[in-house]
Amino acid sequence: VRRNSFIVVLDPGHGGPDPGAVGSSGLRESDVVLDIALEVERLLTLKGVDVKLTRRREIDLDLPPRVSFANKVDADIFVSIPANASKYKRRDINGLETFYFRGWRGRLLAKRIQKQILRVSPGSPDRGVKQGRFYVIKNTRMPAVLVEIGFLTGRLDARRLDKAIHRKRIAYAIAKGILEYLSKVVWKEKFERFLNEDNDI
Cβ(146)–Cβ(80) under 8 Å? Predict the structure, then answer.
């Protein structure tokens, strides 16, 4: 993608006194998703994308400030990264899913990311791309998705997410999905807007 042309906001879920889901091994959702988000940031920055995180450390952060932050910086896209947990901590439930709230842009972004995370997680069930009404994707003004990177309570997913190498693979997959979307959709739209503007040349 063209350098310095895009702003992406990454939102690692939970944080601080709210650890989110906790796996049977004690693996905390807030730690896992922050680790992945920081790696996504590193990869996208190398490609010239301006990346902003809603949090960079273990702090208590409610949902409205996350949305306000993304809207204030006028991001091109918003990507929330949580992990899943099953009721009663059922270890037989595993899988990856990506949610969007509305619009073909949100759906396309979700599809790009879902395709890539499945590639680095062979054997993990494909729970699909779905519409969801999560606060952070419902109230952001830009195309927004929520990427559930696996079940911390699942036998397969928890074992993988506990390993740094798998978290790096997930980060790579999310970054690749984002870059595919930016290169095919957002840059085209920016270029078309430029051509349609009245420029004094």
Answer: yes
